[in-house]
Amino acid sequence: MHVKYIAQLSQTKVIVYVFLTLFSDLTFLSFTCRLGRTQDPAMRNHTSLTRFILLGLTDDPHMQILIFLFLLLTYMLSLTGNLIILLLILVDSHLKTAMYFFLQNFSFLEISFTSACIPRFLYSISTGDRAITYNACACQLFFTDVFAVTEFFLLAAVSFDCYVAICKPLHYVTIMNHRVCQRIVFCCWMATLLIISPPFSFGLALEFCDSNVIDHFVCDVNPLLKIACSETRFIEQMTLAGTVLIFILTLVCVVLSYVYIIRTILGFPSAQQRTKAFSTCSSHIIVVSITYGSCIFVYIKPSAKDEMTINKGVTILTTSISPMLNPFIYTLRNKQVKQAFNDLVQRIISLSKN
């Protein structure tokens, strides 16, 4: 499909196209991996693994109840908060700016990311069934990584939006028009696929002959590499290189944007203007700090043989707590969003009375 044509598609069509691309990539990679396995009889006994066992967080039944209630609560709050943001931006005409377009996509990613991890773990705790099929594990790993990496690129896009809004306010509407925003979001997804696909395709060819027990509550890269009996050094290096590339590309964009933003804000004549400008960017700075600070512990490691304790704790933070807090940090405390929410409630009440 031609790039210019894709850029002109509506947001819904872009999302559908991206998901079809994700699904086709995953299907092709899985088929290729399975085909390669069946064609090598010598390795058939070592690669007939059809499921994994997820150890979870603890074997203590009392702790499992507390963890279940905590994760269920945070998941429902995250789902509710992000769905409210999606709905408000969709129906309110005052929330059609570039910033809210990016936040709408960010909320979609938060819902998708946490839904790829938490419901499966809640099911495991409630039923005691810790088994997950090979294909389900591959899908969970692929989609959680895609959603997480796309969030990083989208955070960089939001920082650029803040830069244009504060440093070039007179040209904001011209620079950040709807077509440009769609292209930026599309590029975020495509960049993610280009970085994620190579190590993932090599990972599908890994052999698991000694153990199928994953020391985690989700299918994650590090615990999977830990139990692989084939050589994992090349995949570890590819994963590390991809992670560093993502961090450098997005962090450079964020840092440069805020260098210019801070320099511009300090040049404002009145303290009121400076306070208002800083408050505009404060939400994004908080989310960036949480996202980068937590993920750096999970993904940037010299070896997959490290202990999983910190990994599990930080994964809980990134999959449950952060998606729950981000709606409140980003938009639900915003005056425009509050007004849009009040208008929506009033509209619903008036419709119910009629």
UniProtKB/TrEMBL annotation:
One of its GO terms (molecular function) is G protein-coupled receptor activity. It is found in: Cell membrane. It is a multi-pass membrane protein. GO terms for cellular component: plasma membrane. InterPro entries: GPCR_Rhodpsn, GPCR_Rhodpsn_7TM, Olfact_rcpt, Olfact_rcpt_6C-like. Residues 81-330 form the G-protein coupled receptors family 1 profile domain. The chain crosses the membrane at residues 12-31, 65-91, 98-122, 142-164, 184-206, 240-261, 281-300, 312-332. PROSITE patterns: G_PROTEIN_RECEP_F1_2. Its main location: membrane. Keywords: Cell membrane, G-protein coupled receptor, Membrane, Olfaction, Receptor, Sensory transduction, Transducer, Transmembrane, Transmembrane helix. PANTHER family: OLFACTORY RECEPTOR (PTHR26454:SF78). Putative odorant or sperm cell receptor. This is G-protein coupled receptors family 1 profile domain-containing protein. The lineage of its organism: Eukaryota, Metazoa, Chordata, Craniata, Vertebrata.
